[in-house]
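> forwarded from #structure-qc
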């Protein structure tokens, strides 16, 4: 297969249209369309279903796309490793972690990292699901559970628990719960159900059952599908919620209540592909994380 045509095909499959792919490749829409048509003719099979709303890969197109995606991701990784200086950390670094950890703990500290390593360009992808590191959807992941993907290097960062918080305004209005069974009479905010993304930890809604009577199930006032949303709702004075201890340095405006209640243990991991084991960018960011964790957690 012609390499240039394969490159155009990969861009079209990623973008979902000839027009958007042309913008990425600095080609006209007609030039992109001609390249795809020529590739289809050389293979004697269609690669896209063409619709008014865009392009959809055929079964054969999907097979070619998966292979092309693998090839281009490995080329990108190789290019990064070839251009990276072993003496000086530089180049792009794509980091993924959960919405809450990224928004509330990591993002406020990333300035210190970039001040120390100005030749590294950081991209952060905050997502409660798992990006595919082997396919270069990110270089590094900070995950709140062991990685399920094979062939990944992992390092345990820290262990934490969940604690219970409320805002001063909420407690002034609804009173301070003195024991876990008092939560029956309070407004609870929990992790939302019915989403495609799995919960960040197992038994995430343990607060619904802490000290509760089996014959009086608790009903939450609000369900939110990420911990950052729960944090914002608690801060607004809406109710009480359990949140991970890594938020402790960010919850100075909240009240830690029922300290005897501890939820499920969280183990955070630093994860990256085996191919990046000797990358200077990975090493310096790992050391930065460990130093910040030692300072604040």
């Amino acid at each position: 297969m012609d390499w240039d045509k394969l490159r155009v095909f990969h861009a079209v499959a990623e973008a979902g249209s000839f027009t958007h792919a042309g913008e990425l490749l600095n080609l006209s829409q007609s030039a992109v369309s001609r390249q795809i048509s020529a590739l289809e003719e050389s293979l004697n099979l269609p690669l896209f279903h063409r619709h008014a709303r865009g392009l959809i890969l055929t079964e054969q197109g999907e097979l070619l796309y998966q292979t092309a995606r693998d090839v281009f991701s490995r080329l990108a990784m190789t290019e990064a490793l070839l251009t990276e200086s072993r003496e000086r950390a530089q180049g792009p670094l794509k980091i993924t972690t959960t919405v809450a950890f990224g928004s509330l703990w990591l993002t406020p500290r990333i300035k210190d990292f970039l001040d120390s390593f100005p030749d590294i360009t950081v991209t952060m992808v905050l997502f409660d699901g798992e990006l595919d590191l082997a396919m270069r959807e990110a270089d590094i992941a900070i995950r709140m559970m062991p990685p399920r993907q094979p062939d990944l290097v992992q390092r345990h960062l820290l262990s934490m628990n969940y604690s219970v918080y409320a805002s001063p305004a909420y407690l002034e209005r609804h009173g301070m719960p003195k024991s876990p069974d008092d939560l029956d009479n309070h407004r609870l905010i929990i992790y939302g159900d019915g989403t495609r993304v799995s919960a960040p930890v197992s038994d995430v809604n343990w607060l619904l059952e802490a000290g509760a009577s089996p014959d009086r199930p608790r009903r939450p006032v609000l369900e939110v599908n990420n911990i950052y949303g729960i944090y914002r709702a608690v801060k607004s004075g809406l109710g009480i919620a359990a949140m991970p201890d890594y938020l402790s340095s960010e919850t100075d405006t909240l009240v830690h209540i029922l300290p005897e209640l501890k939820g499920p243990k969280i183990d955070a991991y630093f994860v990256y592909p085996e191919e990046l084991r000797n990358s200077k960018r990975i090493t310096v960011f790992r050391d930065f994380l460990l130093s910040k964790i030692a300072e604040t957690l």
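QC bot note: The first strand starts at residue 48 and ends at 51. The chain has a mean pLDDT of 85.
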